[in-house]
C-alpha cells in the first residue's frame, strides 16, 4: 500500500526485496558512472568554456586557501559568491584539495552527484510505497538514468546534478517527517532545504514551494473543530518553527550581505528576456523537450502523462502531493517565469515525474494481481491501454537507447563547445607571460574566456587573482575613454589582444593606440581554432608589455 501514516513493520521477505532492489539500482548506477567517467577521460583535453570555469573556479580558489591554511581567505571566498551561491562549492573545494584541481576532477564531482542521487530516489520510493517501493524505485532509477540532458550535464561542471541531489535529499527527509514528525527530522529537513537554496536559487525555490504548499494543505485538511483550534494552532506553529525557522534565519543572514539579494534577484530574471509570458513556443518547447531528452523514448512521454494524471487523481496522498507539487512548481517556473529554452533546465524536476510514473505502474500491478475481480470495467480498460502503451514505449526504447548511448560522445563534444586547440593558445600565452605576472585580456569569448584563463592560472600557477578583461565595441570617444580607464585601473604588466574571435570589435587602429600609450608589443602568433560545424576561427594573439 502507499504510505499515508506511520510506517508498518516490514516482513523479512519485504526487507530482502528492498535490499535486492537496492543492489540492482546500484549496479545500474555504477554502470552509468563508469560510462560517464570513460567519456570524461576521453575528453579531458577539452578545456572549460566560461560556464564550466565559473562553476569550478571558486572551489579551486577555496582549495588553494585551505592548502595554504588561510581560513580567512576561505571564508571570504565562500561568502563572496552571490549569483551562484556556495551550497556545495566547499565540498568541491575539498575534492580539489585532496585530488587536485583538474577538469577531470571537477567534472567527476557532477558524475558523483548523479551517482548519489539515484539511491536517494530509491529511498523516496520506499517511503511512499511500502509494498512495491523496491520495484518503483528500480523503475524510477532506470528512467532517470536514461535522461539525456541529465547525463550530459553529469559530465559537465554544472549545477544540474548537485542541485538534483540536494533537492531529492530534502524531499526524502520531508517524507520521513510526514510519517513521523520529530524536532530532529524537522530540523534536518530545514537544513537540507537551506542547502538546496544555497546550491542554486531556482532549485531551492521549487523545493521550498513544494514543501510549503504540502504543509499548508495538511494544516487545512487536519484543522479540528473550533473547540480545539488553539491547541491545534499551537502544535502547527511549533512544527513550522522547526521546519521553517532555521531556513528563514540562515537565508536572512545570507541575503543580508552586500550584493547577495541583488545576485539572487538577478538570477531569477528571465533568461530569454524578450519571450512573452505566454507563447506557443513556451507552452510547447518544454513538453517536447521532456519527450525527446528526458525519457527513454518519445512514447514514454505518454506514460509519464498517465503518471501525471494518476498523481492528480491521488493528490490527497501526502507523498504523491509533494512530488506532484515539486514537478508542477518546476514546470511553472521554467515555462512562465525563467524562459531559458534549454532542455537542461528541466532536468532537475523531471525525476519527480519519473517517481510518480514508477509508483503508478507498481500500483496498477498491485491492482491487477490482488484486486482484479473488484476492479471496475473502465479501470480494467485503462490498465489494458496503459499496458499496451508501455509495451510500445519499451519496444521504441530498445531501438532508441542504444543509438543515444552510442552517439553520446558526439553529443558531449558539442556540449563542451571547446576544442583542444585552445590549449595551444593558452600554453603560448603562459610561455610568453611570467607565471605570476598579471595581464589584461582583450576580446575573449565564451570558449576562451577570462574565467577559463583564471581557472587555468589557479591550477597551474596556484594564483588566486582574477584575469580582468574587456570586450570592445565600436570605437567612440566614450568607449575609448572607458577602455583607457579599465586598463589604468587594472594595474597589469601585460595586455593580451585576441583578434578574429566571435566577440568584440577589432582593436585596430583606435584601441591599439590606447594600448600602445604605455605598452609595447612583445610578440604575436596566429592560431587556427576548429569550431564544431562552423568555419575555424583564425585568431591573432598579440602580447603587449608595459613600458619601463
Helix and strand arrangement:
Layout: H1 12-42, H2 50-67, H3 71-79, H4 89-99, H5 103-128, H6 133-144, H7 148-154, H8 160-179, H9 183-199, H10 201-221, H11 229-255, H12 260-268, H13 280-293, H14 300-313, H15 318-338, H16 350-370, H17 377-406, H18 408-416, H19 421-432, E1 439-442, H20 450-460, E2 469-470, H21 477-490, E3 494-499, H22 510-516, E4 519-531, E5 534-546
Parallel strand pairs: 1-2, 1-3
Antiparallel strand pairs: 3-5, 4-5
Helix pairs in contact: 1-5, 1-6, 2-3, 2-4, 2-20, 5-6, 5-7, 5-8, 6-16, 8-9, 8-10, 9-10, 9-11, 10-15, 14-16, 14-17, 15-16, 21-22
Please report which band the strand proportion falls in: under 5%, 5-15%, 15-25%, 25-35%, 35-45% or over 45%: 5-15%
The percentage helix is 55-70%
| Lateral strand order in the biggest sheet | 2-1-3-5-4
Query: So what's the overall shape?
Result: elongated
* Helical/strand content category: alpha/beta
Low-confidence stretches: none
The number of E-state strands comes to 5
Would you write up a description of this structure?
This protein has 548 residues and is of the alpha/beta class. The protein folds into 2 domains: 148-409, no CATH class; 421-546, D-Maltodextrin-Binding Protein, domain 2. The chain is 66% helix and 7% strand. The chain is built from 22 helices and 5 strands. The protein has helices at residues 12-42, 50-67, 71-79, 89-99, 103-128, 133-144, 148-154, 160-179, 183-199, 201-221, 229-255, 260-268, 280-293, 300-313, 318-338, 350-370, 377-406, 408-416, 421-432, 450-460, 477-490, 510-516, and strands spanning 439-442, 469-470, 494-499, 519-531, 534-546. A 5-stranded mixed β-sheet has the order 2-1-3-5-4, with helices on both faces. Strand 4 and strand 5 form a beta hairpin. The longest helix is centred in the N-terminal third of the chain and has 31 residues, at 12-42. The chain is elongated and about 90 Å long. The termini are far apart.
